[in-house]
Amino acid sequence: MPNQTVGRHLAQLNVGRLAYDQSDPRVAEFMDNLERVNRIAERSPGYVWRYTDAGGVAATETSFDGEDPRFIANLTVWESVEDLQRFVWDTVHRRFYLKRKAWFRPFESAHFVMWWVPAEHRPSLAEARERLRLLQRNGPSPEAFGWESVPDAATIAARRCA
């Protein structure tokens, strides 16, 4: 399903709700490393852009889901699925991903979505929210898909479980 065409980049949105307030010591390891992980992303091959809120923070955007201070949204653009995969699974990001259950409440539906955008486009949170809702409503499509739609999904699943 993720058919990249010339002149297009991959947008991704990942959302979560912290299990505790952002200042709670039980999520300190996550909160204290957000900028470190974001800097690694920015230096990664294929990285294009990331959304930041008015304060320049990449992941603490409560306006995405009302005024919930525990809500976290991460919106980035990459040159390809492979570039995003390398960052997610082959950097320190993977260690934080594997510990997510200690910091986040489980979602009942999809909390991660990818879609193709024109190379010069920077998606808004409203656009990203709509793509996530599209995936939640209709399942994977060319307009909104997850890792399960990536050709080497078995490799990704193995990495997730390792």
Keywords:
162 residues; alpha+beta; 5-stranded antiparallel sheet; 6 helices; 20% strand; globular
Account of the 3D structure:
This protein is an alpha+beta fold and 162 residues long. Helices cover 36% and strands 20% of the residues. The protein is built from six helices and five strands; from the N terminus they run βαββαααββαα. The longest helix is centred in the first third of the chain and has 16 residues. The model has no long low-confidence stretch (mean pLDDT 88).
How do the strands and helices of this protein lay out in sequence?
Elements: E1 8-18, H1 28-43, E2 47-50, E3 71-78, H2 81-90, H3 93-98, H4 100-103, E4 104-105, E5 112-118, H5 125-138, H6 153-161
Antiparallel strand pairs: 1-3, 1-4, 1-5, 2-3
User: What is the gyration radius calculated from CA atoms?
Assistant: 15 Å
State the separation between the terminal residues, measured CA to CA.
25 Å
Mean pLDDT across all amino acids: 88
In this structure, how is the largest beta sheet organized? 5 strands, antiparallel
SSE string, helix = H, strand = E?
Answer: EHEEHHHEEHH
Number of helical regions: 6
Please tell me what the overall shape is: globular
How much strand? 15-25%
**Helix-and-strand structural type:** alpha+beta
The percentage helix is 25-40%
Contiguous runs where pLDDT drops below 50 for at least 5 residues? none
Count every beta strand, where a strand is a DSSP E run of 2 or more residues: 5
